[in-house]
Specification:
Layout (H helix, E strand, L loop, with lengths): L1 H22 L3 H4 L13 H32 L17 H30 L7 E8 L2 E6 L4 E4 L18 E5 L4 E7 L4 E5 L4 E5 L5 E5 L5 E7 L11 E7 L1 H13 L22 H5 L1
Parallel strand pairs: 1-5, 4-10
Antiparallel strand pairs: 1-2, 2-3, 5-8, 6-7, 6-9, 9-10
Helix pairs in contact: 1-3, 3-4
Length: 287
């Protein structure tokens, strides 16, 4: 009986390894089933690699753990005719050392790789080519193109019959491809979260606090964005689009905003909350 079980266990292990190998051959699994593709920004590949390695390692550990649990449950089960308690072992020092040290090494390793990548992603890019100030507001977005001194004032996504939204009126942020981008992230009212889904990164927007995000968009296209922090009744309609375009197209969009009269900056004077730490009372601003 034990030999048959051992052979079955070995067969299951082989099948599991083959299944994991075959699953690893698919494009989606190579991306870790993330909603993106490689090379969109200078950061996307780093995030994909960290995620894929993490879940593969954890899946292998999970499979081994499940097999050991099943093996112990079958091999050491109470058999017919047996009575009383099985033989009791107080401790096994090698095994206890093993299952203490190995998880500790794994946790420290995952922490070290995560910290390494986070430090790299959060590091400012020197002399950014484009600096855009993003204000989250219930339930839309304002974009200030600081280098060009123009702005875009967004509105909430407009629902259409059937549950879709009108993409023509979604707030749109334009970025030139292969240029260093600095995003300055602010909130006008409550906590929001600025999330460009395909870029695999998001930053919280906290009242009276400024966050930054630096990256280089490397592929032209239209990418979805949304608020990733529950912020009220119409949170689901706080959507936007990111258009990564050529430098010539980017310049045309900036010129179009200037021609519409959107010159200047939609700054903190439009914030709903004016009594937060670090803000200046209206009376003092007027002086």
């Amino acid at each position: 009986m034990r030999q048959r079980f051992t052979r079955g266990l070995k067969g299951a292990s082989v099948l599991t390894i083959v299944a994991l190998f075959l699953a690893g051959c698919t494009q989606q699994s190579m991306l870790g089933w993330l909603p993106t593709e490689r090379g969109l920004t200078n950061q996307v590949d780093r995030v994909i690699d960290l995620w894929v390695v993490s879940w593969v390692v954890l899946l292998v550990i999970g499979v081994i753990t499940w097999l050991l649990i099943i093996w112990a449950a079958v091999v050491y089960r109470r058999r017919k005719g047996q009575t009383g308690l099985p033989a009791q072992l107080r401790y096994n020092m090698p095994i206890e050392t093993f299952y203490t040290v190995v998880p500790l090494i794994l946790v420290l390793g995952l922490f070290a790789f995560t910290a390494r990548d986070q430090i790299e992603i959060e590091s400012p890019l020197p002399d950014p080519d484009v600096s855009i100030e993003v204000y989250g507001k219930r339930w839309a977005w304002d974009f200030n193109y600081l280098n060009e001194n123009v702005y875009y004032a967004g509105i909430q996504a407009q629902e259409l019959p059937g549950g879709s939204v009108d993409t023509d009126v979604l707030p749109k942020m334009y970025l030139p491809v292969d240029q260093k981008v600095e995003i300055k992230i602010e909130s006008r009212d409550v906590i929001h979260s600025f999330w460009i889904i395909d870029f695999l990164y998001k930053k919280d927007m906290i009242p009276a606090r400024t966050n930054y995000w630096y990256f280089i968009p490397q592929e032209e296209g239209v990418f979805r964005g949304k608020c990733a922090e529950l912020c009220g009744e119409y949170h689901s309609l706080m959507l936007f689009e990111v258009h990564v375009v050529s430098q010539a197209e980017y310049d045309r969009q900036i010129s179009a905003l200037r021609a519409e009269g959107n010159v200047g900056r939609l700054g903190p004077e439009l914030n709903v909350l004016q009594n937060l730490p670090g803000t200046v009372p209206a009376s003092e601003r007027e002086e």
